[in-house]
Amino acid sequence: MVLSKTASESDVSVHSTFASRYVRTSLPRFKMPEESIPKDAAYQIINDELMLDGNPRLNLASFVTTWMEPECDKLIMASINKNYVDMDEYPVTTELQNRCVNMIAHLFNAPLEENEAAVGVGTVGSSEAIMLAGLAFKRKWQNKRKQEGKPYDKPNIVTGANVQVCWEKFARYFEVELKEVKLSEGYYVMDPAKAVELVDENTICVAAILGSTLNGEFEDVKRLNDLLVEKNKETGWDTPIHVDAASGGFIAPFIYPELEWDFRLPLVKSINVSGHKYGLVYAGIGWAIWRSKEDLPEELIFHINYLGADQPTFTLNFSKGSSQVIAQYYQLIRLGYEGYKNVMENCRDNMIVLKEGLEKMGRFNIVSKDDGVPLVAFTLKDPHNFDEFQISDLLRRFGWIVPAYSMPPDAQHITVLRVVIREDFSRTLAERLVADIEKVLHELDSLTAKIKMLSGTSSVTVHEVVKDNGQVVVAKKSALETQREITAIWKKFVLDRKKLNDKMNGVC
Amino acid sequence: MVISSTVSHPDEQNESIACTFASRYVREQVPKFKMPENSIPKDAAYRIINDELMLDGKPRLNLASFVTTWMEPECDKLIMDSLNKNYVDMDEYPVTTELQNRCVNIIAHLFNAPIGSEETAVGVGTVGSSEAIMLAGLAFKRKWQTKRKAEGKPYDKPNIVTGANVQVCWEQFARYFEVELKEVKLTEDYYVMDPLKAVEMVDENTICVAAILGSTLTGEFEDVKLLNELLTKKNKETGWDTPIHVDAASGGFVAPFLYPDLLWDFRLPLVKSINVSGHKYGLVYPGIGWVVWRHKADLPDDLVFHINYLGSDQPTFTLNFSKGSSQIIAQYYQFIRLGFEGYKNVMENCLANTRTLKEGIEKTGRFKIVSKDIGVPLVAFSLKDSSKHTVFEIADHLRKYGWIVPAYTMPADAKHIAVLRVVIREDFSCSLAERLVSDIEKVVNLLDTLPSSINSKDAHVAVIASETSEEVKKDITETQAEILRYWKKLVDGKRVGAC
């Protein structure tokens, strides 16, 4: 145990933290401090700084779970010191992971026999899961090409331009070309017909998204499957499908059970889902499931032996905490099918409440569909005077974090605001958000009116730029030119923000 | 919120007040393959899972692992509070992001990175050393490819030179990122990578040489300084400019405090990146590692993704995206709570307890100590005489007392050596060390009374060995090797992966 030296100040242990010297010295930022400090001081100092972080539950940008039951918190804390990878030492925890894999595989209708074990693994998130799935496809394709005596140095993957950033990472790190199907205005997901056109002999797989990050839409995996089956028949290339069900995987089975998107479609060989999104677990858990043993090349698997039985593992991370795996199992048995269904139905209902509240204001176009991940993506009908970024900024004052994004190519001129409805976003919160958005619109309207008024009556020579802190500048030119200038200034401001946000389509 | 419906079982009206162990939930089979149809009360779910988990090993008695198993309650509080923060939302949690950056800088300075006083360090927090190593390896691979392309030479056969004692994640890196692994074989009594042999293996396709500070098997520090000198010479001759990566997963938080004069880090010019596990001697719960690069130039820009927050550029280079923030905050807590003196005290305690354990084991007279005094605080020991019983049996019997002490065979070319290994962590006090020694003595005495449990099918090795040593057909080494091969078959393919 550490013995903190209190030699320097005899009764420092008696002082209340805020009476001690620790809160008036600068906190180390670049170098390790020489001396220890009491644990209460360390706790207080860090806790206080963290107060300035956003409130996770009001972070409406994220799909990732921000609330769990206290009983589960207890289980989490109790297992926080268990290194998941020590399968020998923690066989029960390992078995819980296996149970989760099997449950999820069955949820996705994997074609398993009665006592056959499913093929899958728990990961730290969908990023790791996608990389593993991509690796499996790459290796399978390489092996096939080697056998056929054909070149295997230029693998590619076909996806929509709406993919989450981890697909780009996979492509860059594992040296696979990313062939993106461009979006168009009004059509913000991957078009199956265009995707299949892009498929060539070097395509290792086509990736479809169930629950697009930008507007929550489910891509038409069935149609993709049908078109790809046809093309495969013609070409003999046998191109498979991967479904990135990071968000949708724990939604579709409960409220859209008839929707065919999973292993019921023969070309779907692997699926990833985030346990920490609608799997209702805190950040740090994802799942990758393969259709069958054949879809996961044996040479990628490392075999670890525990309790005399073979435990195959295929992950990028090694040591990691066990808490989230246990929490996922808790949720699966605590809620069961009926519980998850109830949660998703609640989310959907609250989403409708929010959507209708926004529509009623008459200022927004709803870009998200009703069917899909429960979120509301909306744009301003008239972005002439102010745009979505300003609304997002002003909402922060009320405590809400509502992000504004521009769409990827070729719809970069469209900007949306997006609110994700999570389990813990109740109806009261939805109604409050609607009220606050109304307040924000009102404030922006009056700012705009102020500009117009000032520019009409002004005859001064100062140039000012209207900023969102309310300072209005008066222009020296005529009213029309003034408005043009002001609009140009707004536009520049917005475009600068858009450039900043351009690369940030990664929040999930 | 979830409303559990109790309508489905109208015959049990008092369900919500029944004590869990009086309810029906503990007499039904727990779901294992398919999601259950109905919800169950949260107390029942908690109780069922908690009870099953009682049969897991006790983390603090798991002497196989380097990974931290105890932290102060104040830190536990910070961890609980940040469980629901998704680390990657940098926009929303700017303070948490800044804490990570502070940790990176603190660690870079600890490793003597040549940073100017106003310069920020280049590094990132990861989920563990595995991710850190993959990122470092990727950076080397990309740099080398770029260089070869510029020279107009082939770049399709990269390789990496390491010792055969590397942790399994290097093999993973090699396999997943299509890099050849050239391993320097070990020999009896030399269980780390020999710098001379390593440098011999370097060729034009070598993207880097990886040295380990704190070998998993024996805790030894490899001689990075010698490697640096030899490689500098070779680079001068060949012009290949081969760099070094130091896998300081365990040693990175030991060497600076116990052996500050040991040259192994960025003080050596060829060392371009270092990884360290925050969750080993960084004294944080599992789930945090760090990788630091010497200089911006050592991290190719096309691997870095730029995310913008608060108007400023936040470059990121990780394999994982969404993950919890708890461990990062916990790492920062440890840095400011302990400071240099605190970490030094912890490591000195570990060293003292290692000595206690080592001396206790030596005193039994039955074991040979394989680990060195300088290195990661652990004791690796083999049986002087494994003809009748093996270390695997000792490991088995120790479990009865609650201890988890692993037994491993060395990798090639020392596969006939098997050791027991006890890792001394922060929370392994002197009293526990003394208790372990006495329990080991008990086990050894017990085994003395038991017949050799080696299968008679393995003919040469049977009962003969202990009494009539002259009649043994093979010499003791071969016998021991055979016994161990037999045991190895039982524990077939057990990876030395636990870290």
From TrEMBL, chain A:
Entry keyword annotation includes Lyase = yes
Which parts of the chain are coiled coil? none
Q: What EC number(s) does the entry state? A: 4.1.1.15
Single Gene Ontology MF annotation = calmodulin binding
SUPFAM superfamilies hit by this protein: PLP-dependent transferases
Q: Which GO terms describe its biological process?
A: L-glutamate catabolic process
Q: Which residues carry this modification: N6-(pyridoxal phosphate)lysine?
A: K277
Name what cofactor the protein needs: pyridoxal 5'-phosphate
User: What family does this chain come from, according to its entry?
Assistant: Belongs to the group II decarboxylase family.
One GO location term (cellular component): cytosol
Q: What CDD domains does its record include?
A: DOPA_deC_like
Catalytic activity field = L-glutamate + H(+) = 4-aminobutanoate + CO2
Q: Which UniProt keywords apply?
A: Calmodulin-binding, Decarboxylase, Lyase, Pyridoxal phosphate
Q: Which InterPro entries match?
A: Glutamate_decarboxylase (IPR010107), PyrdxlP-dep_de-COase (IPR002129), PyrdxlP-dep_Trfase (IPR015424), PyrdxlP-dep_Trfase_major (IPR015421)
Question: What Pfam families does this protein's entry cite?
Answer: Pyridoxal_deC (PF00282)
Domain of life the protein comes from? Eukaryota
Identification of the protein by name? Glutamate decarboxylase
TrEMBL record, chain B:
Whether Lyase counts among this entry's keywords is yes
Query: What domain of life is recorded for the organism?
Result: Eukaryota
Modified residue annotations for N6-(pyridoxal phosphate)lysine: K280
Keywords per UniProt: Calmodulin-binding, Decarboxylase, Lyase, Pyridoxal phosphate
The keyword Protein transport is assigned to this record: no
Under Gene3D superfamilies, the record lists:
3.90.1150.160, 4.10.280.50, Type I PLP-dependent aspartate aminotransferase-like (Major domain)
> Which GO BP terms apply?
glutamate metabolic process
Q: Which family does it belong to?
A: Belongs to the group II decarboxylase family.
Q: What is this protein called?
A: Glutamate decarboxylase
Q: What species does this protein belong to?
A: Medicago truncatula
Organism lineage string? Eukaryota, Viridiplantae, Streptophyta, Embryophyta, Tracheophyta
